[in-house]
Amino acid sequence: MTTPDTRSGTGAPAELFFEDLVPGLTVDLGTVTVDGDEMLAFARRFDPQWYHVDSALAAASRHGGVIASGFYTVSLFMRAYVDHLLSRAAADASPGLEELRWLAPVRAGDRLAVRVDVMGARPSTARPGLGTVSLTGTMLRLGPDNRPEQEVMRTRFRGWFALRPAEPMPEGSPTEAGRSGGSPTDASQPGGSPAGTDQREGGAVAISRPERGPSERGTAETSQSAGGSAQAGRSEGVPAQRPDSDRPGTKTPH
What we know:
With 254 residues, this protein is of the alpha+beta class. The protein contains six helices and six strands.
């Protein structure tokens, strides 16, 4: 039976954990096309301002036509985030967001490329077994040639993700035999790997992983062996995160 801390955001068995979400990682969340009927229905229900719902008034204004509610645009981002990342990751709740910006109008028929970048990661001080990941999400309008024309939305937020569970040691394993007086394990031989060290890569997903040099790889492996999770650094130029108070703030629409 799948335990809560090994389920993905949609309840399926998780393939990705906190340790896989390292700073510098980019996850492609696919492309969404803005449906005009859905856009208007959302605005009429949740954001009925005239430039979102009245075609005649909007056409005569500086907008030149009806534009999407910004919260509809955020909802499109959220769905792509769930479909392409949270459905595979051991995601918990979110403590909130730091920034949400609508950078250009979105209109019916627009094709928007969606992605998320990992900016920082650290174990949570208030939620044992979870790590706090700082993320930046962006949406870019694509042109007829499928090249990005303009960034239309950007958001900075945090998410909680479960640490990878420790794997139980099978009965009768070489390590168990060594403890009982049997043959020594490979870990006791020169050049042997410590027993229980997680040698797996993170699950396959449409991501771009940052390149690591030999010294960085060695540091990451040592960190994972010692504590079960890698303490990820922050990329240069990223604003320092506030202390992880994990207070309920403005939440991403989970």
